[in-house]
Specification:
Blueprint lengths: L2 H12 L5 H20 L12 H13 L4 H17 L32 H5 L4 H13 L3 H6 L2 H4 L4 E4 L10 E4 L3 H14 L11 H15 L6 H15 L16 H18 L7 H5 L2
Antiparallel strand pairs: 1-2
Helix pairs in contact: 1-2, 2-4, 6-9, 6-11, 11-12
Length: 288
C-alpha cells in the first residue's frame, strides 16, 4: 500500500465523523483520490502534502471526465474533510463555484429507474445480498437500510417501519405495505433473517457492505440506486393515475390545475416514503 493511501486510511480510522455509510463512502473516495493523484504524477505524497495545485488538478480531471454535479460535490466534500483534519482548511476553496463545478440538477426528465429481474438475482450467490436487493426494489430502500433492517421488527402488518438507527440521518419512517407482492417478499425475507438483520452474525456492517458491492459488481448489477427510482416512478403512477415525466408521462406545465394538485400530493407522499423531507427531491426520481 502506498504511503498516502495508508495515511488516509489511518486518518479515517482516527476520525469517525458521520454514519457508518458516510465513513465508508468517504474512505472509498479518498482512496480513489490518492490513486488518481499518483496517476497524475504526484508521487511520494503524504497526508500533510495536500496543496491547492493538487485540488485543482483533481477537479480539472473530474470535469474532463464529465462526472455528475452530485459526484463532484461528494468528492469535494471528502477533500474538504481531509484538509480540515490536517489543519489546512484553506487548501480547498469554500465554494465549488471557484472550480467551475455546476449546481446539482434536480430535474433531468431522464429516467434512472432500474428494474430488479430474476436474472439479476440468479447471478447473486450471497443470500443476504439477494434479500437486501429484493427489499430495495420492493420498498425503495437505500442500500444501507436494506442491510441494517431487521425485517421481523420492521413488519407492523400494514406498514414497514424503519427505525432511526437504520435510516439515513436518523430519520425513522413508515412505508405502507400496499400489495400482495410486497407482503410475499417481506414474509420471505423475515423467514430468512429470523430475529436478526440482513448482516450475517459473523460480519460487521462494513464487511457486509463490501460483500454486497462485490456481489453486485460480479453479477453485473450496476446503478443499484435505480431500484429507488423504479419504486418512486411506480408509486407516482399508482397515486396519480399517469406516468411520471421521467417515465414518459406529462410534464408539469402540461398538467391542469387539478392534476397539479394531485401531482404535488403524490410527490409529498413519495418523498416521505423514500426518507426525504422535501418535495423538490422527487424531481430526481420522477422528473418534473
Amino acid at each position: 500500500m502506498h504511503d498516502l493511501n495508508y495515511e488516509l486510511k489511518q486518518l479515517c480510522a482516527r476520525n469517525r465523523d458521520g454514519s457508518f455509510a458516510t465513513q465508508v463512502n468517504r474512505e472509498r473516495i479518498l482512496t480513489l483520490i490518492a490513486n488518481q493523484l499518483r496517476e497524475m504524477g504526484f508521487v511520494n505524497m503524504h497526508v500533510q502534502s495536500l496543496k491547492p495545485r493538487h485540488v485543482e488538478a483533481l477537479v480539472q480531471r473530474w470535469l474532463a471526465e464529465g462526472l455528475s454535479a452530485g459526484t463532484l460535490k461528494n468528492r469535494m466534500a471528502a477533500l474538504r474533510w481531509w484538509a480540515e483534519k490536517i489543519g489546512k482548511p484553506n487548501v480547498v476553496a469554500k465554494s465549488n463555484d471557484v472550480y467551475g463545478i455546476p449546481d446539482r440538477r434536480y430535474v433531468t426528465n431522464v429516467s434512472k429507474a432500474r428494474e430488479l429481474t430474476s436474472g439479476d438475482l440468479a447471478q447473486v450467490t450471497d443470500p443476504y445480498t439477494r434479500m437486501s436487493l429484493r427489499l430495495q426494489a420492493t420498498f425503495g430502500l437505500r442500500r444501507a437500510e436494506s442491510l441494517k433492517i431487521r425485517p421481523g421488527c420492521a413488519d407492523r402488518g400494514d406498514t414497514l417501519v424503519l427505525e432511526d438507527s437504520w435510516a439515513k440521518g436518523g430519520r425513522a419512517r413508515a412505508i405502507p405495505i400496499r400489495n400482495d407482492e410486497q407482503r410475499r417478499v417481506l414474509d420471505e425475507v423475515k423467514k430468512f433473517a429470523g430475529r436478526g438483520s440482513l448482516i450475517p452474525a459473523d460480519r460487521t456492517y462494513v464487511q457486509q457492505l463490501r460483500r454486497f458491492e462485490y456481489q453486485c459488481d460480479r453479477a453485473g448489477i450496476d446503478r443499484v440506486h435505480g431500484h429507488r427510482h423504479q419504486y418512486a416512478q411506480e408509486r407516482y403512477r399508482e397515486l396519480t393515475g399517469w406516468a411520471a415525466p421521467a417515465a414518459g408521462g406529462p410534464r408539469s406545465k402540461q398538467l391542469t390545475r387539478e392534476q397539479k394538485r394531485v401531482d404535488r400530493e403524490a410527490r409529498l407522499i413519495i418523498s416521505i416514503e423514500l426518507g426525504h423531507e422535501r418535495e423538490q427531491v422527487t424531481a430526481i426520481y420522477c422528473g418534473r
